[in-house]
Write the structure tokens for this entry.
Amino acid sequence: SDLDQNDIRATSRIAIFGPAEKRLEAELLLLTALEMQFQGIVFAHLATRSPSRGLGLEAPPDVRISKRTREKVFVTEQEVQSADDRWVKQLLEGNQLKPLLHVTGCTAMHFFEQTCQEKTALRMNMRCALAGTHEQRWLASNIVQFMSMVYGRDRSDPLPDVPPPPPLAGEYLCVRVPNDCMPSVQGRGGMNCRNIEEELGCLLIVYRERPGSRREALEADEVEDYTELMFKDVRCGPMQEIIIFGSARARHAAHIRLLSIIERQYCGFHRKPKGGEPKEIDESTGLGIDKVWLQSDLEPDATNRYAKMLGAAAGCAADSAGHMVFISGDRRERQRCREYLRWVVEWAGTGQTQDTQRLPRVEHAGSRKDVLLVDPVPRKIWTNVWLKDEMLKLSESARVLAFFDDWVSASVTVVGDDAANDARRMILVGIEIERQGVSSDFAAKLLSDFRHLIAALEEPADLPAANSPEKADDDMPVDMPLPATPALPSMLAMPATPARSGGCVPLPATPGGFNTGLRPPSTPSGFGGVRPPDTPGAFGGSVQPPATPGGFNAGIRPPATPGGPSGNVPPPATPGGCG
């Protein structure tokens, strides 16, 4: 070098302490702050070291996106916070950076503008810096390139018609949705897709449109079922492909969510098997999807409450749409969920008729590892509507199912006693009970919570009734006299009533009454010696009326008028007049 070492200033160094992931995130944030003042410093810094096989930073040179894609789907939290209120909703609706980080597992992901020399890549002037493990960075870089191909086009350009990159073949799941159902799937501004991504931990990308297969037109007399004809048009019509990234369970959970949305819009879209049991079972031992058709709707309203409870208790994913229930999980989980589903349907059907014959039956409940038993309770308790609602709320928070079954112990059965024979036990069932054990603290708290609900409806059993003979004979003191009752012989006398026959309290005296000794109040001009007030000018009155000026014998002269006869006030002089 031609420069002296004394003329070169040493580069400042910053030491970062903490967990490995936090150190990477802090390093990338520092580089981002420097990039705002010195463009290109991020990639110059990362080019000086080779990518790590473990946790590290990497800026793949072939990962480039357009600025439009960056502003459309990769929005950071800092940009959302600094944006105007009118743009915040639009940024959140299209933002897919958060689900992308969750799906890939990367710690951080930042995009920087860097000019490219190639003419074909003038639009792809944004590069990506990734923080994570080698596998996480590889997956993120491939997904970013795929999203750039989908979202980097102009609005007038058609959707891409090429398959996803081959390296991502085992990382996604492709679901075809009828074009008529896409507004229900996406929602306003894509909010339905964002809600699915946040709830299930996946990434949804609306990919390409597939044309439908043409069907020959039929004459009106050749059509036997117009509903089935409509479904054929929908099933064979154009479809929109949606790519789902995420873990295997998240992909299958999102898959059945999309299937349920289609079934809600087109009730009967999924064909019910002819003959046999109304269900379609995936026989694979790994993750799969089962479809079950019910006689009536599982949900009493538009919510997905029972399906979510069912999936949480069985340890899998479940979704419902009308008469259909979709279940995703491995074979053992799906089998358990179908068994739980039968109990839920039978217990939900007891709300209208309170029929004990429709209660579910749990065989060998005492020997099952996923079941807890609560002592039997009488009919008036297990048919209580309030108890059923509270059981449902507590089941949601505890991730179990709670219901009463129709099992009756032989020791409880009493011939001719319907009240004793109608007693039923409560069943608590769920995979979490099996995982933690029936003797765990979780099981003990669960039993305590549900027993408190029952105790709120029970009368105290250790206290005899108020009119029971045991209470009168055993608890009443013998030497204590009975309390005296008023108005009974040889006991306290009744209180005296004024003016009542035999009473000692006379009636209150009324002024002016007969022989009362009290004179009534005197009224003016009435009998009583009080004179009325004198009226001025009245006959014989002592008060004279007021004198009127100029009146007869009034003694008061009227006022003189100027210029009048014999007046002493001359008239006023008129200017220019005579004299």
